[in-house]
Amino acid sequence: MKEAGGPEVMEYVDVDLGQPGAGEALVRHAACGLNYIDVYFRSGLYQQALPAGLGMEGAGVVEAVGPDVTHVKPGDRVAYAGRPNGAYAEARILPAKILVRLPDAIAFETAAAMMLQGLTVEYLFNRTFHLRGGETILFHAAAGGVGLIASQWARAIGVTMIGTVGSDEKGELAKAHGCTHVINYNKENFVERVREITAGKGVPVVYDSIGKDTFTGSLDCLAPLGMMVSFGSASGPVPPFGMGELASRGSLFLTRPSLMDYTAKREDLETMAAHLFSMVESGKVKIDIRQRYALKDVVQAHRELEARKTTGSSILIP
Locate the Enoyl reductase (ER) domain: which residues (predicted)? Predict the structure, then answer.
């Protein structure tokens, strides 16, 4: 893309890659991930230097490495989720530090669909607000890629998950993946339903990737001393608000986390990836790929993603 804008700004072009430099690796993709954060970069909500590629997630085989790269080698199966953008490609050169070796038991397509979303759930549940089992939580967009992983993960660790969805069909999907209670926000007031489900107590944590449309309601669902985790802006950025909004609801906590900060240290990335791989290999979390697009059809993929026509995970096939 040479400029920010709608899906049509993306161009399918050939580039000369060359050879990886110090600290870099050349990876040939078997599959690439498609995530809502890609829309933020394409539209200009998130800034990047242009011209640029898009995509933060992929899986494939290392073809070459630059000097000083020792944790991966040519022939290794790898996966990643991270910056810089550029995963929408048949092959790319990228910083080797974001690559993790992929267990043989996990297919490339599964890996490309789960790294960003699965690592997101890992840090949300284990690091941002450490769930120990027994809690009741609110998780918005429960039928999306992150939401379906979260539904299964919550069930596996004994957490009662209340999930919001935009249709009855999406509600059934979330329930089938382990979400305990579903709220169709087009038919019900989610704040009232959360208070009803929790007997008026509210929840200790809300995980909100919607942003503008749900932020205030999410605060209203929290119990005193609860944690508001705002980790996305699908409906637009949260508007400015006064800190008194947190005090008046019972000394609430608010955080705006990013996966890249949680995986910045190599040892943390490897620990988080190992935990995710273990959950998937055990069968406790199954990655539900519901949309596959040819890489050249990425414009259509973005249109369907923004129109909320997708559920579960989506991937691009080079």
Answer: 5-316
